[in-house]
Design a protein that fits this description.
The chain is elongated, with a radius of gyration of 20 Å. By secondary structure, the protein is α/β, with parallel strands linked by helices. The protein starts with 28 loop residues before the first strand and ends with a strand. It folds into 2 domains: 68 residues, no CATH class; 60 residues, Transcription elongation factor, GreA/GreB, C-terminal domain (Chitinase A, domain 3, Roll). Helix content is 32%, strand content 21%. Helix 1 packs antiparallel against helix 2. The chain has 3 helices and 7 strands; from the N terminus they run βααββββαββ.
Length: 155
């Protein structure tokens, strides 16, 4: 098959510029860890682009260039938020432990969009969980996804 007719997983012809990744419309709030994450991802995209150039791999260059554009944009709009001094209420950057109505305890840290990874205990500040917890204190009960959870600790 002629390579001119081959497409990547997202449907773009290989070797052509790929559409930009969608930039979230929310402010780009980040923790110090989140800022480091953005810097690592940008460096990784730069390395991938250089390697693709060296190999003259146009498909890899297109993918790496898209990542460079995304992470450059995220770096230029990043707004570093320092850890909250108020440990009595939930804020961006807070580490919150909840006890769900089924007895499970979970701890989450509220972070920026690009650094969120619920499987590793971080949730985006725009997530329903973070929105429900924001401004609340220990002992408050929130409802998320139709289930109640009590805030048992804030750090």
């Amino acid at each position: 098959m002629n390579k001119a007719f081959v497409k990547d997983e997202e449907g773009a012809p290989l070797g052509e510029a790929l559409p930009d990744r969608e930039i979230p419309s929310h402010p780009n709030l980040v923790t110090a860890d989140g800022l480091q994450h953005i810097d690592r991802m940008l460096a990784e995209a730069d390395r991938a682009f250089a390697e693709a150039q060296e190999a003259d791999d146009r498909d890899a260059m297109a993918r790496a260039a898209r990542e460079q554009r995304y992470w450059t944009s995220r770096r230029s709009t990043a707004q570093l938020v320092h850890p909250p001094a108020d440990k009595r209420h939930v804020h961006f950057g807070s580490k919150v432990t909840i006890e769900r109505d089924d007895g499970r305890k979970q701890t989450f840290r509220i972070v920026g969009i690009d650094e969120a990874d619920p499987a590793h205990g971080t949730v985006s500040y725009v997530s329903p969980m973070a929105q429900a917890l924001s401004g609340k204190a220990v002992g408050d009960v929130v409802t998320v996804g139709g289930h109640e959870a009590e805030i048992v600790a804030i750090a």
